[in-house]
């Protein structure tokens, strides 16, 4: 047996407290002598571990505050997210509003600038010296040179205000035998389709006519099968075109068979003559570059005078007063389309002019297309139009503050069968521009 370990008596009192521990430890180290005991102590038995007690759940710690790339944000994250969402939502509306304001400011500034320039250049040529202003459709002291400058002065304002695109759309809707009232310098001439005017169907042989009819019907079928045709063909459009034979050349929009332009100013028609020569194919080889004799002056209000006649009368420019009389078409007694741009503002009696146009229009199938300017839809706009009306009349010879819808409604009471097919007032101009389509219903159709 192992000998016991005794604590010497000289152990200090401070160590005497640990005497029992030292005795036990020494005893264990000295009494381990058998192999079994060594194995026992080398591989102790595993005691069952007690199950850990569940700990009370704690809420997760709050996320750290978001920081911007440049540093910590001054506001909360929710406010930053709200501002970011608002900027995404209103970004494009704000851009669109800015573009609209820019275009409107350009249009207004160009009109005001042209008025000031005209006032400074010709202060003594104002036809507004008295309070009784009677529009005649002719600016004061008009010559060929002033007609050319007048025409060039319209390029920028009409481009900025989209009047040019409106002219193009309106002229592309003309068909058949077309009469343009108050054609002026011929600003609509580049937008007509002159194919049938230059090469009419009657000029081809029977075989060629049959081939052209087949190709035309194929184009018509393709047009009707298109998605855009089904979208834009409204009930009003169908009512307008009822009675038309689509197989007949000149019944579809854009198929112009003949053109007659009427204006009261020979100087304006001299500029229109140059445009006819430039825009109608094959006329550059037939017509002279410059007219040999000067344009005649307006003489008789009841006798129209033809100043340009080409392609067997299918293209004509006539000097006449549209309020008094209109020349008949090349074929038939009435026109398929009567078009007028900014003419009701330039005559002394606009209702009389509308009545005259309605009398020269084919009933049921014919249409009157108008592009006019007048009173807007807002009081402050109308006040500005009234204020600038004399200066505008001085330059352009027209009153832009007339009540166009009121004139049409009063004319409807005087002309039986006159109906309004549609009226458009582009919001970009504040409702001051009118695109109107009229027709005249026959007595049988009215029943």
From TrEMBL:
Biased composition (Basic residues): 37-49
Signal peptide (from-to): none
Residue ranges with Pro residues bias: 51-67
Gene3D superfamilies per UniProt: Vaccinia Virus protein VP39
Transmembrane feature ranges: 94-117
Chain segments carrying region Disordered: 18-80
Keyword presence, DNA-binding: no
GO molecular function annotation: methyltransferase activity
Gene Ontology biological-process entries: methylation
UniProt KW keywords: Membrane, Methyltransferase, Transferase, Transmembrane, Transmembrane helix
Domain of life of the native organism: Eukaryota
SUPFAM superfamilies: S-adenosyl-L-methionine-dependent methyltransferases
Compositional bias per record (Low complexity), positions renumbered to this chain: 19-36, 68-78
Pfam families associated with the record: Methyltransf_23
PANTHER family: METHYLTRANSFERASE (PTHR42912), METHYLTRANSFERASE TYPE 11 DOMAIN-CONTAINING PROTEIN (PTHR42912:SF83)
Protein name per its UniProtKB record: S-adenosyl-L-methionine-dependent methyltransferase
